[in-house]
Design a protein that fits this description.
The complex is a heterodimer of chains A (about 280) and B (about 300).
Chain A lengths: L2 H19 L4 H5 L2 H11 L14 E4 L5 H10 L5 H4 L30 H15 L6 E6 L6 H12 L5 E7 L2 E2 L2 E2 H5 L4 H7 L3 E6 L3 H13 L5 E6 L7 H5 L10 H18 L4
Parallel strand pairs in A: 1-2, 2-3, 3-7, 6-7
Antiparallel strand pairs in A: 4-5
Chain B lengths: L5 H15 L3 E5 L3 H4 L2 H7 L3 E3 L4 H13 L3 E7 H7 L1 H10 L4 E6 L17 H6 L5 E4 L3 H13 L3 E6 L19 E4 L4 E5 L3 H14 L4 E5 L2 E3 L3 H10 L2 E8 L4 H12 L4 E6 L9 H7 L4 H12 L1
Parallel strand pairs in B: 1-2, 1-3, 3-4, 4-6, 5-6, 8-9, 8-11, 11-12
Antiparallel strand pairs in B: 5-10, 7-9
The chains are: A alpha/beta (about 280), B alpha/beta (about 300).
């Protein structure tokens, strides 16, 4: 399938999930839609039939609050049905805000306390390296998340262990919960920092599925060093209402907001040709 | 075996486990020289991982290794294994239901010259609140080996608290450690429950009480969680209980025993351990005096209860 169309579908179901709940992490979920579309549409060696296959590629969503976008993707890939998708955060659910490896099919690692997923991803990549496997581990990481010191421990470990099958995807959407990253704790240049930490690193337009695909394929060619691709994204990406909203991390929309969300969903539905 | 330092028991046991199981990996955070794990480095090769001075990464990477089917044995000093990396241990290992074995060394006053910064009086309290994990404080080389072997075959998160140096030998290696306790002395008037270095103090106290015509039983209650409730209830029906631990009286062995006693078979108790104090540097015997961790403290507590 066309990757941009897949991205539109992921965006549509992410919005439906969160709209169904009435509130949630819209901003940071939407900014990783394109990279999820490329990963699950083009790059990853995974499938619901082989979800426990040790030779599969692994994905760790370290920025766990973006779980709804991952869930929409896993639903579209056939890991579970629509009813399961819409059970997000309902009482007794197996689909909690933050990913849980025990509860949700297709989730490789439990995350939610920022920084920890990166460490786990280094352990998974190290385990597969020890086993002599050629599979890849992808860690999706938030720019705000990189405030956490543990991330930099993990990067040092990854570089020292030459985890060239670890690919870190930094969602540089420029915002964290309390505002712009440059205002809270200036991250300076992620590419320079990652290179200084012993990674291959470069910046890519995180809204351009073709550019992301090229970057991921390049990253897979790298040897001896792990790779960090800095995705230039927009918080709330692809939904004008959220892109323009300054405080868009966790949204509990008012009436006007709800109407804007309904409209965005209708526009996306038209784009992907589904009947609501 | 009984003459080996506990750190030698660790290395020897992990080597033996790693030899028969290719899934065993050993992680440490720049303490190989302290722990004497150079043989692990030599013989485990790539399955020995020294992450450097980064305990959060040590726990997180262990979780990832467990996800790919490895069984990580992780060691560092007890305060770094628990209070420093608590969220990583709680979430990436405990909550994520990964099988891993953490060995925390130099508990309580045994940190000696490293002093208050390195002196964990709270590690058991922290670890006890992680659901469904297993917690041991070991007192003897044979016991340590048996528990490491069990932790290898079982599932879930293990925390094993141990000194690094030589322990007072208590066992012969023929004991059954599966019940989580060992009765070291019989007695009819009351019970002393102890763990780790306090077992020897408890035995001394029981001996001193015997000379006063008081007969108490001494139980090495080395499995802190899940604690064997039956033995605690049985002891409570016999008479008063004194607990003795090289840890804060809040949240450790004494608390765990008191919770079972209060809910099942109320009886008078006293808890010997550290009370409302931080650690400090000093030699072991001096620190035991300072924090009231001597046989004499146990002796007096039992006498008070029996009055």
């Amino acid at each position: 399938m066309d990757t941009q169309k897949f991205a539109d579908q992921i965006r549509y179901y992410t919005m439906r999930e969160l709209d169904n709940l009435g509130f949630g992490h819209f901003g940071g979920s939407l900014s990783i839609v394109e990279v999820l579309a490329v990963l699950y549409g083009k790059v990853l060696n995974v499938s619901p039939e082989r979800k426990d296959d040790p030779d599969r590629d692994y994905v760790v969503l370290s920025k766990g609050h973006a779980g709804p976008a991952l869930y929409a993707t896993l639903f579209l890939k056939g890991y579970f049905d629509e009813a399961f998708l819409f059970s997000l955060n309902q009482n007794g659910t197996n689909l909690p805000s933050h990913p849980d490896r025990i509860k949700t099919p297709g989730v490789d690692m439990t995350t939610g306390s920022l920084g920890q997923g990166i460490s786990a991803a280094t352990g998974i990549a190290k385990g597969n390296q020890l086993l002599g496997k050629e599979n890849y581990t992808f860690a999706i990481v938030g720019d705000g998340e990189l405030n956490e010191g543990q991330c930099w421990e993990a990067f040092q470990f990854a570089a020292h262990q030459k985890l060239d099958h670890l690919i870190v995807l930094i969602d540089d959407n420029k915002k964290q919960l309390d505002g712009y990253t440059t205002d809270i704790c200036d991250p300076f240049d992620f590419v320079e920092k990652m290179q200084a930490f012993g990674f291959n690193s470069w910046r890519v337009d995180g809204g351009d599925v073709d550019a992301i695909e090229v970057a991921l394929n390049q990253a897979k060619q790298m040897i001896d060093k792990p790779t960090a691709i800095v995705l230039d994204t927009v918080k709330g990406q692809g939904v004008p209402y959220f892109e323009e909203l300054v405080d868009n991390h966790h949204i509990r929309p008012d009436e006007a907001g709800k109407a804007a969300i309904k409209e965005a969903i209708a526009t996306l539905a038209e784009k992907i040709e589904v009947n609501q | 075996m009984k003459d080996l330092e506990m750190r030698q028991v660790y290395t020897k046991t992990i080597l033996a486990l790693a030899e028969k199981d290719p899934k065993v990996v050993a992680l440490e955070a720049d303490l190989a020289s302290s722990m004497g794990t150079s043989k692990l480095k030599e013989q485990l090769g790539r399955r020995y991982i020294n992450v450097g001075i980064m305990e959060a990464e040590e726990m997180g990477a262990a979780a990832g290794l467990a996800v790919t089917g490895f069984i990580p044995f992780i060691h560092t000093f007890a305060p770094f294994a628990t209070r420093r990396s608590f969220d990583q241990v709680f979430l990436s290992l405990g909550y994520a239901q990964n099988h891993a074995v953490i060995v925390g060394t130099d508990p309580g006053v045994t940190a000696e010259m490293n002093g208050g910064t390195h002196m964990p009086f709270e590690d058991l309290a922290l670890m006890r609140v992680i659901p469904r994990n297993h917690i041991y404080e070991v007192s003897d080389p044979y016991q340590f080996k048996a528990i490491l072997e069990y932790a290898h075959t079982a599932q879930g998160l293990f925390y094993i608290r141990t000194i690094r140096k030589q322990a007072n030998p208590l066992y012969t290696g023929d004991e059954d450690f599966s019940k989580g306790y060992c009765k070291l002395k019989a007695g009819m008037d009351g019970t002393i429950f102890a763990s780790g270095i306090m077992v020897a103090e408890a035995l001394q106290a029981a001996h001193d009480l015997e000379e006063q015509g008081i007969s108490v039983q001494v139980i090495d209650l080395f499995r802190i969680k899940p604690m064997n409730e039956e033995i605690v209830i049985e002891a409570a029906s016999l008479g008063p209980i004194v607990t003795a631990e090289n840890h804060n009286v809040i949240g450790g062995l004494g608390s765990a025993v008191a919770e079972i006693v209060a809910e099942n078979q109320p009886v008078k108790m006293k808890r010997i351990g550290v009370k409302e104090q931080f650690g400090q540097v000093g030699r072991l015997e001096h620190l035991k005096e300072v924090y009231g961790l001597k046989a004499d403290n146990i002796f007096k507590a039992m006498c008070d209860l029996l009055q």
